[in-house]
Amino acid sequence: MGWMSRALITLAKSHQAKYNVVSGISQCGRFSFSTTSFNAARLFTDKHEWVDVNGKTGTVGISHYAQDSLGDIVYAQLPDVGSEFNLHDECGALESVKAASELYCPVSGKVVEKNPAVEETPGLINQSCYEKGWLFKIDLSKPEELDTLMDEAAYEKFLKSQSDDG
Protein backbone atom coordinates (compact mmCIF):
# COMPACT_ATOMS: atom_id res chain seq x y z
CA MET A 1 0.00 0.00 0.00
CA GLY A 2 1.40 3.36 -1.02
CA TRP A 3 1.80 6.40 1.19
CA MET A 4 -1.21 8.12 -0.39
CA SER A 5 -3.50 5.16 0.30
CA ARG A 6 -2.33 5.06 3.93
CA ALA A 7 -2.85 8.81 4.24
CA LEU A 8 -6.36 8.59 2.81
CA ILE A 9 -7.28 5.72 5.12
CA THR A 10 -5.99 7.70 8.10
CA LEU A 11 -7.93 10.73 6.93
CA ALA A 12 -11.15 8.74 6.46
CA LYS A 13 -10.79 7.20 9.91
CA SER A 14 -10.45 10.64 11.47
CA HIS A 15 -14.13 11.26 10.64
CA GLN A 16 -13.32 14.06 8.26
CA ALA A 17 -15.24 12.50 5.40
CA LYS A 18 -16.19 15.61 3.46
CA TYR A 19 -13.94 17.89 1.44
CA ASN A 20 -14.53 20.33 -1.37
CA VAL A 21 -12.29 19.80 -4.34
CA VAL A 22 -12.02 22.34 -7.12
CA SER A 23 -11.60 19.96 -10.05
CA GLY A 24 -14.03 17.18 -11.03
CA ILE A 25 -13.37 13.62 -9.95
CA SER A 26 -10.00 11.95 -9.56
CA GLN A 27 -9.51 8.33 -8.59
CA CYS A 28 -6.97 6.62 -6.37
CA GLY A 29 -7.96 2.99 -5.98
CA ARG A 30 -11.41 2.97 -4.38
CA PHE A 31 -10.93 6.45 -2.95
CA SER A 32 -12.60 9.24 -4.87
CA PHE A 33 -12.74 12.98 -4.58
CA SER A 34 -15.55 14.96 -6.12
CA THR A 35 -16.93 18.44 -5.93
CA THR A 36 -19.44 17.32 -3.31
CA SER A 37 -17.79 14.73 -1.11
CA PHE A 38 -14.92 12.40 -0.34
CA ASN A 39 -15.88 8.75 0.00
CA ALA A 40 -13.56 5.87 0.69
CA ALA A 41 -15.65 2.99 -0.62
CA ARG A 42 -18.99 3.87 -2.26
CA LEU A 43 -19.78 1.37 -5.00
CA PHE A 44 -22.81 1.21 -7.30
CA THR A 45 -25.00 -1.39 -9.00
CA ASP A 46 -26.55 -1.14 -12.45
CA LYS A 47 -29.93 -0.91 -10.65
CA HIS A 48 -28.75 2.33 -8.97
CA GLU A 49 -28.24 1.06 -5.43
CA TRP A 50 -25.00 1.94 -3.67
CA VAL A 51 -23.05 0.37 -0.85
CA ASP A 52 -20.49 2.16 1.29
CA VAL A 53 -18.29 -0.40 3.05
CA ASN A 54 -16.69 0.08 6.46
CA GLY A 55 -14.95 -3.09 7.63
CA LYS A 56 -17.38 -5.98 7.11
CA THR A 57 -20.49 -3.79 7.16
CA GLY A 58 -22.00 -2.02 4.18
CA THR A 59 -24.38 0.93 4.31
CA VAL A 60 -26.90 0.72 1.45
CA GLY A 61 -28.90 3.40 -0.32
CA ILE A 62 -30.03 4.56 -3.74
CA SER A 63 -28.10 6.89 -6.01
CA HIS A 64 -28.85 10.52 -6.74
CA TYR A 65 -29.90 9.43 -10.23
CA ALA A 66 -32.42 6.93 -8.79
CA GLN A 67 -33.98 9.34 -6.31
CA ASP A 68 -34.18 12.04 -8.98
CA SER A 69 -35.86 9.61 -11.40
CA LEU A 70 -38.38 8.51 -8.77
CA GLY A 71 -39.33 12.02 -7.73
CA ASP A 72 -40.66 12.79 -4.25
CA ILE A 73 -40.40 9.57 -2.25
CA VAL A 74 -43.39 9.11 0.07
CA TYR A 75 -42.93 5.55 1.38
CA ALA A 76 -39.96 3.31 2.16
CA GLN A 77 -40.34 -0.41 2.87
CA LEU A 78 -36.97 -1.41 4.30
CA PRO A 79 -35.78 -4.95 5.10
CA ASP A 80 -36.14 -6.19 8.66
CA VAL A 81 -33.08 -6.48 10.87
CA GLY A 82 -31.93 -10.10 10.83
CA SER A 83 -33.11 -10.72 7.26
CA GLU A 84 -30.58 -12.42 5.01
CA PHE A 85 -30.23 -11.71 1.30
CA ASN A 86 -28.17 -12.86 -1.64
CA LEU A 87 -26.73 -10.55 -4.26
CA HIS A 88 -29.53 -8.99 -6.36
CA ASP A 89 -32.37 -10.31 -4.14
CA GLU A 90 -35.36 -8.00 -3.83
CA CYS A 91 -35.10 -6.56 -0.32
CA GLY A 92 -37.59 -3.71 -0.10
CA ALA A 93 -39.46 -1.05 -2.04
CA LEU A 94 -39.75 2.69 -2.45
CA GLU A 95 -42.86 4.55 -3.54
CA SER A 96 -42.95 8.06 -4.91
CA VAL A 97 -45.58 10.37 -6.30
CA LYS A 98 -44.54 9.12 -9.78
CA ALA A 99 -43.75 5.41 -9.37
CA ALA A 100 -42.97 2.43 -7.17
CA SER A 101 -39.61 0.72 -7.34
CA GLU A 102 -38.17 -2.42 -5.81
CA LEU A 103 -34.88 -2.33 -3.91
CA TYR A 104 -32.29 -4.95 -4.78
CA CYS A 105 -29.55 -6.00 -2.40
CA PRO A 106 -26.15 -4.92 -3.79
CA VAL A 107 -24.31 -7.61 -1.79
CA SER A 108 -25.07 -10.84 0.06
CA GLY A 109 -25.39 -10.66 3.82
CA LYS A 110 -27.50 -10.12 6.92
CA VAL A 111 -29.29 -6.83 7.67
CA VAL A 112 -28.00 -5.43 10.97
CA GLU A 113 -29.71 -2.02 11.01
CA LYS A 114 -32.29 -0.04 9.10
CA ASN A 115 -32.68 3.72 9.02
CA PRO A 116 -35.72 4.62 11.14
CA ALA A 117 -35.49 8.26 10.04
CA VAL A 118 -36.12 7.19 6.42
CA GLU A 119 -39.11 5.07 7.44
CA GLU A 120 -40.51 8.06 9.34
CA THR A 121 -39.56 10.66 6.69
CA PRO A 122 -38.94 9.00 3.30
CA GLY A 123 -38.22 12.39 1.73
CA LEU A 124 -34.79 12.24 3.40
CA ILE A 125 -33.79 10.04 0.48
CA ASN A 126 -34.48 12.93 -1.90
CA GLN A 127 -32.81 15.48 0.37
CA SER A 128 -29.66 13.52 1.21
CA CYS A 129 -29.46 10.15 -0.54
CA TYR A 130 -25.80 9.55 0.41
CA GLU A 131 -25.85 10.79 4.00
CA LYS A 132 -29.12 11.05 5.96
CA GLY A 133 -31.11 9.07 3.39
CA TRP A 134 -29.26 5.74 3.65
CA LEU A 135 -31.59 2.74 3.84
CA PHE A 136 -30.01 -0.12 5.78
CA LYS A 137 -26.75 -1.67 6.93
CA ILE A 138 -25.72 -5.20 6.06
CA ASP A 139 -22.93 -7.47 7.29
CA LEU A 140 -21.31 -8.79 4.12
CA SER A 141 -21.19 -12.59 3.81
CA LYS A 142 -19.36 -12.54 0.45
CA PRO A 143 -17.08 -9.48 0.33
CA GLU A 144 -15.69 -10.66 -3.02
CA GLU A 145 -18.99 -9.51 -4.57
CA LEU A 146 -17.78 -5.93 -4.15
CA ASP A 147 -15.51 -6.57 -7.13
CA THR A 148 -18.61 -6.80 -9.36
CA LEU A 149 -19.76 -3.28 -8.46
CA MET A 150 -18.84 0.04 -10.08
CA ASP A 151 -16.84 2.82 -8.48
CA GLU A 152 -18.10 6.39 -8.89
CA ALA A 153 -16.29 7.02 -12.19
CA ALA A 154 -17.53 3.75 -13.73
CA TYR A 155 -21.07 4.48 -12.52
CA GLU A 156 -21.02 7.95 -14.10
CA LYS A 157 -19.82 6.36 -17.35
CA PHE A 158 -22.63 3.76 -17.06
CA LEU A 159 -25.23 6.53 -16.61
CA LYS A 160 -23.89 8.36 -19.65
CA SER A 161 -24.07 5.18 -21.74
CA GLN A 162 -27.68 4.67 -20.64
CA SER A 163 -28.66 8.20 -21.65
CA ASP A 164 -26.85 7.77 -24.98
CA ASP A 165 -28.90 4.61 -25.64
CA GLY A 166 -32.20 6.40 -24.94
TrEMBL record:
State a single Pfam family of this protein: GCV_H
| Classification via Gene3D superfamilies | 2.40.50.100
Query: N6-lipoyllysine: which positions carry it?
Result: 98
- Cofactor: how bound: Binds 1 lipoyl cofactor covalently.
Q: Which GO terms describe its biological process?
A: glycine decarboxylation via glycine cleavage system; protein lipoylation
**Sorted alphabetically, which keywords does the UniProt record give?**
Lipoyl, Mitochondrion, Transit peptide
Which InterPro entries is this protein grouped with? 2-oxoA_DH_lipoyl-BS (IPR003016), Biotin_lipoyl (IPR000089), GCV_H (IPR002930), GCV_H/Fam206 (IPR033753), GCV_H_sub (IPR017453), Single_hybrid_motif (IPR011053)
Lipoyl-binding domain residues are 57-139
Known partners and oligomeric status: The glycine cleavage system is composed of four proteins: P, T, L and H.
Instruction: Report the function annotation for this chain.
Output: The H protein shuttles the methylamine group of glycine from the P protein to the T protein.
Name the UniProt record assigns to this protein: Glycine cleavage system H protein
